[in-house]
Design brief:
The protein is mostly helical. It contains 10 helices and 3 strands. The chain has one domain: Tetratricopeptide repeat domain (Serine Threonine Protein Phosphatase 5, Tetratricopeptide repeat).
């Protein structure tokens, strides 16, 4: 149990964003909302970073691409520098606010990540990625019930958003000691991602603990 717990906690505070896979956020849902409804995203350890969406204002596309590349390669300070320019120049482009928040989080600047995500949500309130990232930032700050609410909002907007489902399960398991919530959400995640054998082990562990 302690080994699993340490693994998850290490993952939560691990190295910078890694581009593992590319996925469409459309997922057949009823609108991600705003200018980002056709967003293409890259997976990060906890969720997603926006890589492409509706074109930023003329002249900023190259900077946006450079910022994403820097974020993917762990050049967090460089990414922040570029994204701060973009959000200042094109404040209605929600994707850049989300990526800036992720970069702030990777730099340990969690309060700034929260503020930036609140801005993104104000511009695109139906964006599940923004709510998922807000949950991650809240969790890093120890604001666990607010993190739960943010993950639930992401799942309300997109029930098949399984990264938010897994994040909620981990939150309930390790930080809220809410075993029913953890089991329910691990099971839902595992149904969506059956190849994640590690989660199957976690479910068995929780079921064993509940039976004690």
């Amino acid at each position: 149990m302690m080994r699993r717990r340490n693994h998850l906690l290490g993952r939560a505070v691990g190295p910078g964003v890694t581009a593992i896979a590319i996925a469409s956020l459309a997922l057949g849902c009823a609108g991600v909302g705003g200018r980002d409804s056709s967003a293409v995203v890259k997976r990060t350890p906890d969720g997603f970073a926006i890589t492409e969406s509706v074109r930023p204002r003329l002249g900023l596309r190259g900077q946006f691409d450079d910022a994403q590349e820097a974020l993917s390669e762990g050049e967090v300070d460089r990414s922040i520098e570029l994204l701060e320019v973009i959000t200042g120049s094109d404040p209605d482009f929600a994707a850049s606010h989300i990526n800036l928040a992720i970069a702030y989080r990777e730099a340990g600047r969690y309060e700034e990540a929260v503020t930036t995500l609140e801005t993104a949500i104000a511009k695109s309130p139906q964006h599940p990625v923004a709510h998922n990232e807000l949950g991650i930032a809240y969790r890093r700050l120890g604001r666990f019930e607010e993190a739960r609410g943010a993950y639930l909002e992401a799942l309300d907007l997109q029930p098949r958003f399984h990264y938010a489902r897994k994040n909620l399960a981990i939150l309930c398991d390790l930080f809220l000691a809410d075993l029913p919530c953890a089991l329910e959400n691990y099971a839902a995640y595992h149904e969506a991602v059956p190849d994640d054998a590690e989660v199957g082990i976690w479910i068995a562990d929780l079921e064993s603990r509940r039976a004690e």
